[in-house]
Design goal:
By secondary structure, this protein is of the alpha+beta class. The protein folds into two domains: about 130 residues, no CATH class; about 55 residues. About 25% of the residues lie in helices and about 40% in strands. The chain contains four helices and 15 strands. A six-stranded antiparallel sheet has the order 3-4-5-6-7-10, with no helix packed on it. Strands 2-11-12 form a three-stranded antiparallel sheet. The protein has a two-stranded parallel ribbon with strand order 1-13. Strand 3 and strand 4 form a beta hairpin. It is globular, with a radius of gyration of 20 Å.
């Protein structure tokens, strides 16, 4: 069976949920919807989410509810289940939330702590359980360009609002410089491989 690509799979990210205000400080309950637009067809799929956070570890969870339609039989199933959330302390205070993968693979409960869960058939779980790979893992041999793309580098540059502070490069600008160097090295390696092919 062909592996799915992480970049084109429906996913839920803790970082995105945090940006949308689902994890304010203190105890909270939030609900909302997440919608994905699928490629050039622009077909949409969506799920409802309810998040309870800031309670005890046992009471931190995200509830997903949606209707799943089987691709072949067109049979519909109403899905409604919880995925446990776990927290770890942050270096400068506060906590970071994680999903606990609820799936089983080869009869073994997964339970991995992950920042992203993917739509895997009827369910959502970690990419290991869904056998989902990143685009860079599909590239191989002489044509592999590395795991950094030009959009990654451009995004890092746009995030580095200030390049220097007190005569030293800022943390975000140093990240951009590292990614730019990595990208340049990838191009040099690729050029030398192509030179050996032709």
């Amino acid at each position: 069976m062909a592996r799915a690509k992480a970049e084109t799979s429906n996913s839920l990210k803790i970082s995105w949920l945090k940006k949308q205000g689902y994890f304010p400080k203190g105890e909270s309950w939030r609900s909302g919807n997440v919608t994905w637009t699928l490629g050039m067809s622009e077909n949409k799929s969506s799920i409802g989410i309810d998040i309870t956070a800031g309670m005890t570890e046992e009471e931190n969870y995200i509830r997903l509810h949606y209707t799943y339609t089987d691709y072949w039989t067109k049979e519909k199933s109403d899905m409604n289940y919880k995925i446990q959330l776990e927290t770890t302390p942050c270096h400068f205070g506060g906590v970071r939330y994680w999903f606990i993968c609820p799936l089983s693979k080869n009869g073994q409960y997964c339970g991995r702590r992950v920042g992203v869960i993917y739509n895997i058939g009827k369910w959502f779980g970690c990419r290991h359980c869904g056998d989902i790979a990143y685009q860079a893992q599909f590239e191989g041999g002489n044509f592999r360009m590395g795991s950094v793309t030009e959009p990654d580098v451009e995004k890092a540059f746009s995030e580095a609002k200030t390049h220097y502070y007190n005569g030293k490069p800022t943390r975000k600008y140093k990240r951009y410089l590292r990614l730019r160097q990595k990208m340049n090295n990838s191009w040099i390696r690729a050029a030398s491989r192509f030179g050996n092919i032709f």
